[in-house]
Design goal:
This protein is α+β, with helices and mostly antiparallel strands. Among the domains are: 99-210, PDZ domain (Pdz3 Domain, Roll); 264-373 and 442-493 and 531-572, 2-enoyl-CoA Hydratase, Chain A, domain 1 (Alpha-Beta Complex), CATH 3.90.226.10. The protein contains 14 helices and 26 strands. The protein has a 7-stranded mixed sheet with strand order 12-13-14-15-20-21-26. Strands 6-5-8-9 form a 4-stranded antiparallel sheet. A 3-stranded antiparallel sheet has the order 1-23-22. A hairpin with a 7-residue loop joins strand 24 (513-521) and strand 25 (529-531). Helix 1 runs antiparallel to helix 3 (59-67), helix 1 runs parallel beside helix 4 (71-83) and helix 9 packs parallel to helix 12 (467-477). The two termini are 35 Å apart.
Length: 574
């Protein structure tokens, strides 16, 4: 999905372009940001030990804050502090809607920055003859790869490859919500490309600018006679940013929705969260499409034949559908069809940003014919959560909520209180959507298993994130079928947005837990641990989609490879 970041209302900004924050206000807001993470950040010990970043050591950061001479440089420090966590979920966002766009995009294929998107309504081919597959060499005389190195901190994605790919999007699209100095681009840039034959072409490409750029936050009067607090004695850092409502669930479900949120924001990578497979043009010639013909369909599905077998295919674009009930009904219908009409099934969750843990596990239950283990979470234990869950429990009880909801809320509260009593920062691994880690397969009203029972393969890549990580880990932990593709991102926890500073008006997303896998994972790049965070989920069959051949051939080499792997699996009878 190209180009979509959460934008904050400019009504929050006091006065653009006037006086700067005072030093006391900057220090206060940085301390509020660091306190927010000190209080709520779930993976603290893992980051300290595995990544080497201790968020409690703020003296060097305070020195950087005190060295700033303007608000934008202060925002750079705030952003850098959060990015040092190397956490794909966690980002510091500015109160601005400005963005600048060159109207083409690049990604990293075979280690090179190749064009993979061109907005021809803005860059007509008659004037801008460069095409998909050209290599970006430089912008305004600056080497593109060196520019990329300076952009990494704005799109941290838990591992080097995912980070570089996301940051590559920022070469040609500059959102100020992430980049404090995004407005510092010229009206027109000189862009140099390298053709596949080695020749170079140079173009003067205008930046399309939208929104209102942020130059300062403005001046506020700092209270001196008392320490300010939010409503009812709760500090601003205790007030989560309310998500945009999509429906009207009971109020007692809100804390559960918050805890079950394993979703990355939209990114500019092609096909991220998209309904249509990135390789759709190269699906086998025998492919007969079922779902995905309209944008309202929650899945893209169909059936093809290969090697004498009938193989089902379904793409899960995210675990955050517009309507979960509609999506689950559609998925169940497709699974019933595949069970009756196919020999095996390919599930595509590449470029999947995640979503709801509860919805994800209901999807998984339709793919697991036997008892299976879900992914539990070690949750940061805070008094605020105890209050929120206690209030939700009383509300649920008063409104006659299902017993399963009451049991879940009670179990969550008990786990948090136990962690606090034992002076532990995190709970023991607990499920966030049920009271048991082990689950039954999906059953019909008569108790019959309706889950898919035949061989299965799942397509993953380094953009399978958050809930996408959890889905892949669940499939692998239960030995349900091979994972094909590249390692997942490693966004391994639930996430919540919080206000982060009374004066600077920023928003910080905070990972509140760690996903815990069935067994410790051994890799060469991280300490052995049962985590998804940073480590990701490693494929059983490693095949890289990010090659020039896949870019220029619409993914045909990749499709040929996963079809061959699926046929081989079916021939082995597993």
């Amino acid at each position: 999905m190209r180009l979509c970041y959460r934008l904050l209302p400019l009504s929050l900004v006091a006065s653009l372009g006037f006086a700067q924050l005072t030093m006391d206000q900057k220090v206060s807001d940085f301390q509020a940001l660091s306190a927010l993470y000190a209080k709520r950040y779930g993976p603290y010990e893992w980051k300290r030990d595995a990544i080497g970043f201790d968020l409690f050591k703020i003296a060097p950061w305070l020195a950087q804050v005190q060295a700033t001479t303007n608000d934008l440089d202060f925002y750079e420090v705030m952003s850098s502090y959060v990015s040092s966590l190397n956490d794909a979920h966690d980002v510091y966002e500015l109160p601005t809607n400005f963005a600048a766009n060159l109207n083409f995009g690049v990604d990293i294929y075979d280690g090179k920055l190749l064009v993979d998107f061109i907005n021809r309504s803005r860059l007509p081919a008659s004037e801008f003859q460069f095409v998909i597959g050209y290599e970006l060499v430089s912008i305004d005389g600056q080497d593109a790869n060196k520019l990329l190195d300076g952009l990494l901190k704005y799109e941290i994605a838990a591992n080097p490859r995912s980070t570089r790919r996301l940051a590559a999007q920022l070469l040609t699209y500059r959102p100020e919500v992430l980049m404090p100095h995004a407005a510092n681009v010229p009206e027109i840039s000189t862009v140099v490309f390298r053709r596949p034959d080695g020749g170079q072409e140079t173009y003067r490409i205008p930046w399309t600018k939208s929104g209102l750029s942020l130059t300062t936050v403005g001046t506020y009067t700092t209270p001196t006679s008392f320490v300010g607090h939010g409503t009812r004695g709760i500090s601003p850092a205790d007030n989560p940013v309310a998500p945009v409502p999509t429906d009207d669930p009971p109020d007692y479900m809100k804390v559960l929705a918050r805890l079950q949120n394993c979703l990355l924001p939209d990114k500019a990578v092609n096909g991220f969260g998209g309904l249509t497979p990135i390789f759709v043009a190269s699906l086998p010639s025998t492919f007969v499409q079922r779902l995905g013909k309209t944008f309202t369909d929650p899945f893209y599905s169909g059936v093809f034949t290969a090697g004498g077998f009938k193989i089902g295919f379904i793409r899960i674009p995210s675990y955050a559908p517009l309507n979960q009930t509609t999506a689950l009904t559609a998925f169940q219908t497709e699974i019933a069809y595949f069970q009756a009409n196919t020999d095996g099934l390919v599930v595509d969750e590449m470029r999947n940003p995640g979503g709801s843990v509860s919805y994800l596990n209901l999807i998984v239950s339709l793919l697991m014919p036997n008892t299976w283990r879900s992914i539990p979470f070690a949750l940061r234990a805070t008094s605020e959560l105890v209050v929120a869950i206690s209030s939700a429990y009383e509300s649920a009880k008063a409104q006659g909520a299902p017993q399963s909801i009451l049991d879940l809320l009670a179990a969550l509260k008990t786990a948090i209180l136990t962690a606090n009593d034992q002076m532990r920062g995190d709970t023991v691994p607990i499920p966030l959507d049920d009271v048991t880690i082990d689950r039954s397969p999906a059953l019909d009203s008569k108790g019959n298993v309706i889950a898919y029972t035949k061989p299965l393969m799942v397509l993953i890549d380094e953009m399978s994130a958050s809930g996408g990580d959890a889905f892949a880990a669940t499939i692998q932990d239960n030995a349900r079928g091979p994972l094909f593709g590249w390692r997942t991102m490693g966004a391994g926890g639930n996430v919540e947005d919080w206000e982060a500073g009374t004066y600077s008006l920023g928003i910080a997303s905070v990972t509140e837990s760690l996903m815990i896998r069935k067994n410790p994972v051994v890799t060469t790049d991280y300490p052995t641990a049962p985590y998804v965070e940073n480590i990701g989920v490693r494929p059983d069959i490693q095949v890289d989609y990010m090659t020039r051949d896949n870019l220029t051939q619409n993914g045909k080499p990749f499709v040929d490879a996963f079809v061959a792997a699926m046929v081989a699996q079916l021939q082995k009878g597993n």
